[in-house]
Amino acid sequence: MLLEVLRETVIDSLKLLPFLFAAYLAIEFIEDRAEEKTVALVHRAGRWGPVLGAALGVIPQCGFSAAASALFSAGYLAPATLVAVFLATSDEAVPVMLAGGASAKSILALLVVKFVLAALGGYLLRCTVFRRREVKLDEPLEIELNACGCGEPLPNILGHTLKTSLFLFAVLLAVGEDRLASVLLGGSIFQPLLCAVLGLVPSCAMSVLLSELYVSGTISFGALVAGLSTGAGFGYIVLLGEKQGRRRAAPVILATFVLAAVGGTVTQLLFG
Questions:
Q1: Which of 10, 62, 208, 260 suits 2 as a labelling partner, its CA being 20 to 30 A distant?
Q2: Residues of the chain with confidence (pLDDT) below 50
Q3: Nearest to 271 by CA among 227, 223, 215
Q4: So what's the pLDDT on residue 45?
Q5: Whether 81 contacts 50, CB under 8 Å
Q6: Please, are residues 268 and 189 in contact by the beta-carbon 8 Å criterion?
Q7: Helical H segments across the chain, by residue range
Q8: How far is Cα 183 from Cα 1, in angstroms, rounded to an integer?
C-alpha cells in the first residue's frame, strides 16, 4: 500500500516538471522586462492606484508584491493600493494550475474574480479606512526590486521548478488529499475562511498547495480565491522586515485578510 502511494506520488510529481518549467520560463521573461517600469507606474498612479495595482498583481510574477511592500514601507505607495496588489497576487498558482491540467476557463475565472475583488476592495478601503493616507509623489523613487531573491534566469527557473515539485511531492505523500479535505472542512461554508488563514503564511509554497488542492477537487473555487487573495508571499516578509512600514503593516494585513475571506465566501456561495 505504501509503495503504491509512493509510486503514484512520484509519477504525479514528475508529470508536472515540464509544465512548471515552461510556466516559470514565461514568468521570468515577463519579470525581466517589466518590473522596474511597473513599480514606477504604480507609484505614479494616484487615484487609479487600486485598479492598476489589481491589474498588475494578477500577472504571474515573483517579486511585484515584495516591491510594492517596499514602496509602501518607504512611503511611496498608498495602503489601499498595496492591499489591492496583495489581493490580486497569486504567486505560483497559475503555473501549478496549468501543470495540473486546469482548464483555461477556470484560470481566467480565477484571475477575473481576483481582479474584481482587488480593485473594488482597494477603492472601498481608500474611501473608508485608509482615506487620509498620503504618499510621496514628488521625491525620487529609490526601491530595491530584487526582494524576491531572484538570481540568474536559468538557475532561478530551475530552482523554482524543482522546489515547487518537491513541495507538492512532500505534502501529498505526508498528508494526502483525503486528510487535507477533512482538515479544511470540504464542502463547508467555512472553507474559504480557513484557506484565507492558510494563505497568510508568508511563502510561495502556500499558493502551490492551494492550487494543487483545487485542481484535485479538495477545495472549492471560493476557497481557492480566499487563500490566494491572502497569499502575498514575499510581500509580507518585506512588509514586516522594513522598520519604516512595520507599524503600519497590521492594518494592511488585516484588511487583506477580511476582504479575502469575505470575497472567497461570496464567491463560494455564487459559484461553488
A1: 208
A2: 1-2, 5, 34, 140-141, 145-149
A3: 223
A4: 59
A5: yes
A6: yes
A7: 2-43, 49-57, 64-73, 79-88, 93-99, 104-127, 153-174, 177-183, 191-199, 204-215, 221-230, 234-241, 243-246, 249-271
A8: 23
The HSE-up count of residue 164 (CA atoms within 13 Å, CB side) is 31
| CA–CA gap between residue 154 and residue 106 (Å, rounded) | 29
Among 114, 125, 121, 63, residue whose Cα is nearest residue 92? 63
Chain position carrying cell 503504491: 4
What lies within 8 Å, CB to CB, of 118 at 6+ separation is 50, 53, 54, 57, 58, 83, 84, 85, 86, 87, 88, 229
pLDDT of residue 114: 96
Q: Find all residues with CB under 8 Å of 64, minimum gap 6, and list them.
A: 35, 38, 39, 56, 57, 85, 89
Q: What is the DSSP letter of 218?
A: S
Residue type at 117? Answer: L
- Following CA atoms 219, 228, 117, 237 in sequence, which dihedral angle do they give, to the nearest 10 degrees? 150
- Exposed, middle or buried, 99 (CB in 10 Å: 0-12/13-18/19+)? buried
Identify the residue whose cell numbers are 494616484.
46
- Rounded-to-10 torsion of CA 231, 77, 38, 95: 0
CA distance 41 to 63: 15
Terminal CA-CA length for the chain: 34
Q: Other C-beta atoms within 10 Å of 186: how many?
A: 17
